[in-house]
Amino acid sequence: xxxxxxxxxGAGKKACExxxxxxxxDHQYLLHEGYDSMDISEPCIIAVxxxxxxxxxxxxxxxxxxxxxxxxxxxxxxxxxxxxxxxKVRQINDELIAYSAPLNEKSIMATTFTSVFFDNxxxxxxxxxxxxxxxxxxAFIKQLTTDHTTYQYLRDLGNYEAAETxxxxxxxxxLGGGDAGGLRRLEIREIERERxxxxxxxxxxxxxxxxxxDYFEELMQDESLPLLDKTTCLIKNALQNxxxxxxxxxxxxx
Length: 254
Description:
This protein starts with a strand and ends with a strand. The longest helix has 19 residues. The chain contains seven helices and 14 strands. By secondary structure, the protein is α+β, with helices and mostly antiparallel strands. A hairpin with a 4-residue loop joins strand 9 and strand 10. Helix content is 29%, strand content 29%.
């Protein structure tokens, strides 16, 4: 399994609020910048968290959550159990709320959370917020997670007119936020090994809200271009489309 990532801080920002975790028995990387490509082994956890915009302490929230994720799975004991994963992520949510409560203006810090747990037989995609996990086998990229946003909620109800006029970046499920009720939804999706895609792709909204899906798919099909160069092209394309947010892309190749 090979992991390629690239992270770029948003324009005019003092600190990147995106956090990326690459964690196996030989790597314990919690990243906010840079780019690289490396081989990792199972069992492992790959995760992306994005501090919720508009709430102070976004970087702190995303860093805290992924640090706690490593702590709670420090032995990387397998097989992973979805009920245990759910329980521990909810514990992280409670601990983030308790941590932020006395921090005054940071008391409602919050973060999205998208992670993939790989053991020897399967993977679990665990998700809350509007960071994304997608799969690609041939020509098409398929989104595996749901965007927990007001925009997507209204579209799911069929209220397309209201969806087009709402705050499209408003998130309705996340970790933290000063209230355990903020984690309204926690998705866990199992993927059996024989159904692993060629690529599993994790992105923050600074990428997927600004990169056209046709361009994304065409780029990923270009076998002549190394994956690290593809992440550079995606970052550049997002910038060309006026993305001022932090930008993270992680590509897992099987």
